[in-house]
Description:
By secondary structure, the protein is α/β, with parallel strands linked by helices. It has helices spanning 17-26, 41-50, 60-66, 81-90, 105-118, 132-142, 173-176, 180-183, 186-196, 278-284, 294-306, 315-334, 348-351; strands at residues 6-11, 31-37, 55-57, 71-74, 94-97, 122-124, 149-159, 199-207, 218-225, 230-236, 238-250, 253-259, 268-272, 338-339. The protein folds into 2 domains: 6-126 and 296-312, NAD(P)-binding Rossmann-like Domain (Rossmann fold), CATH 3.40.50.720; 128-289 and 321-351, Dihydrodipicolinate Reductase, domain 2. The chain is built from 13 helices and 14 strands.
Amino acid sequence: MSPRTYRTAIVGTGAIAAAHARAVAASGARATLVAVADVDLGRATEFAATWRVPRAHASLTELLREERVDLVHLCTPPRLHAPQALECLEAGATALVEKPPTLSLAELDTLAEAERRTGAHVATVLQHRFGAGAIRLRRLQEAGELGRPLLATCVTQWYRDEAYYAVPWRGTWESEGGGPTMGHGIHQFDLLLSVLGPWSEVTAMAARQARPVATEDVSMALVRFDSGALATVVNSVLSPRQTSELRFDYERATVEVEHLYGYTDDDWTVTPAPGHDAVAELWGRERSSVPSGHEGWFAAVLDALDRGQAPPVTAGDTRRTMEFIAALYASAFTGERVRQGQITPDHPFAGRMDGTGAPWRNQ
């Protein structure tokens, strides 16, 4: 491994920025936080003092002009992700982008092209992929220990009240790109996709049931994977008993995790099929107390950069998840089954996730 120390910066010093600062601090000598930026310079200055960051700036442009940085953590509202990531790439800095990484497939493809042109990287923060349980599950699956994946369920049932949507940039297609499908459930179904691999078709519904928003507040999808596995996906911000759940039924075992915003090994259970008790033994051989979170993701980013590789989650990996989102909306709003590859650059749901328009837009 390279002994290099990466110079990092955080742009946007709201709540999620603290998770990024902790991840940098936990990396030890591998990374150092040299600057922060926020449109509210006072908030940036306060954040810098809390985390002992040398300098605070009023904009990303100012930061990139005055600092030498390798990595920029973008913790800003979703509508800013694509233009700010592009600005980082043009400056030769790797952009680490909170979810959703862009508002559309078209924006993501623009960033991928900029990666190829500049040689810099863009990576999406999808930290649940990097928890010990998810890593173990993928390894056992790849080794064939679980048998074929047959079906899965993926549930993100959270609760966000009207006060949550009083923040001006929430709840619109122009600022967030979508509702709970884009901004909340993405963590769970991204983990689902990282385990089950390429999806082949989606049939979905979405509705605006209760919240005063332009986007959906609930969506549901039926998914078929290239492997033949079937899955259901539920995304909600209307559910008073909040939960995040994933269940995978294989030939030899059921593997489940239930948590809210992050999991540890204690949140996973394995139920062997009759005659396959060895699966539980294999699962239990390794135990970890480390939660899924930004620290594990950031360590994986640094590992990749040390090896001279693109950091996770790469634009290519992210595209599979973003294409799934576009397909879900396209199916929900047109009433048609949507297949992988169908959302081409000229498709209405490539440029905007609401494509031809949400059914309730004129209500």
